[in-house]
Amino acid sequence: MRILELIPPIKDYIWGGTKLRECFGKESKLEKLAESWELSCHKDGASVIANGEYKGRTLNEFLSENPDACGTACSKFEYFPILIKLIDARDNLSVQVHPDNDYAQRVEGEYGKTEMWYIVDCEKDAELIYGFKSEISKQEFKDAIENNTLLEKVSRVPVKKGDVFFINSGTLHAIGKGILIAEIQQNSNTTYRVYDYGRVGADGKPRELHIQKALDVTELKPAENYSVSEAIETADKRSQLLAECEYFKVVKEDINGSSELYANEKSFNHILLIDGEAVLKCGDEKLNLKKGSSVFVAANTGKYIIKGNCSIIITEI
Question: How far apart are CA 25 and CA 45, in angstroms?
Fold first, then answer.
């Protein structure tokens, strides 16, 4: 068994909405569906297998019994290296920052977080926070937090469907309301909030801020400009490299016909179908895919084919 359809754990953070249920068919008893963790081996929520002999078991369990399914590129990591999410921001997320590996492993006991965002959809005039308008000192950053003037210092970026952002660890950022995002990130759940719009959690108390840790790790300057590669078009598909770094490689394909893909010995492939419908075939294995489908293709599977009219995001190590 080399092709695993995954069921994501769902998170109901206070800023979440209903689009993951309405647009992607995610099932949950929770009222708010803020995040679905489409590929996860994290301790805070693991993907569950929906098909085959491992049906009902977690991806962690499958990989513990089939370690070669990760691929040789994963061997340099202490544990499963990435986490993939769909995120529905009905309201603004907190202004936050993630630490790098050295700081996170020393202070939090897990990896830091470098991530990328693909804007699946958004409302008119939606925007996000991405770094600072200009370089500031640590004292100016601290003063802005304490004086409630931080939003005057940050860079607000208008977004549209199809935009891509690369968020290096240390980059101050926030997803704005009305944005639906596919996020590919290091396997970490460490976030340092510095501003949260005065909101309170389920306990009626203001949500915790992490000022000193944020002061330790934030890059106090504008975020670096990021651009994606030119798309390559054939009769059946349009393929575009969205991001490539030491942790992950991400490609988007718009398929109108068929696409022949390949999972070699170096890495698994993860397929996230963000629009349309398709059929995935690999030897005798076959999966019908719809919008929101999440599939783990084991390393060394070799050739597999996706046929249909759809858009997919392919991630590998």
Answer: 19
Task: Let me know: does 184 contact 84? Beta carbons within 8 Å.
Answer: yes
Q: What is the pTM of this model?
A: 0.94
DSSP string, 92-124: PPPEEE---HHHHHHHTSS----EEEEEEEE-T
Would you state the pLDDT for residue 1? 66
Three-state DSSP at 277 gives: strand
What is the residue whose two structure tokens read 């769902």? 10
DSSP string, 214-250: HHHH---SBPPP--PPPPEE-SSEEEEEEEE-SS-EE
Main-chain phi, psi angles of 101, to 5 degrees: -60, -45
Length, in residues, of the chain:
317
Tokens of 125: 């005039």
d(CA 242, CA 262) in angstroms, rounded, equals 18
One-letter identity of residue 301: T
CA distances from 154 to 91, 145, 146 (A): 18, 11, 15
Alpha carbon of residue 299 to chain centroid: 21
Start-to-end Cα distance in the chain: 20
DSSP 128-173: EEEEESS---HHHHHHHHHTT-GGGTEEEEE--TT-EEEE-TT--E
Question: For 179-199, what is each residue's pLDDT tens digit?
Answer: 999 999 999 989 999 999 988
Q: Which residues are catalytic?
A: 193
CA within 13 Å, CB half, 75: 8
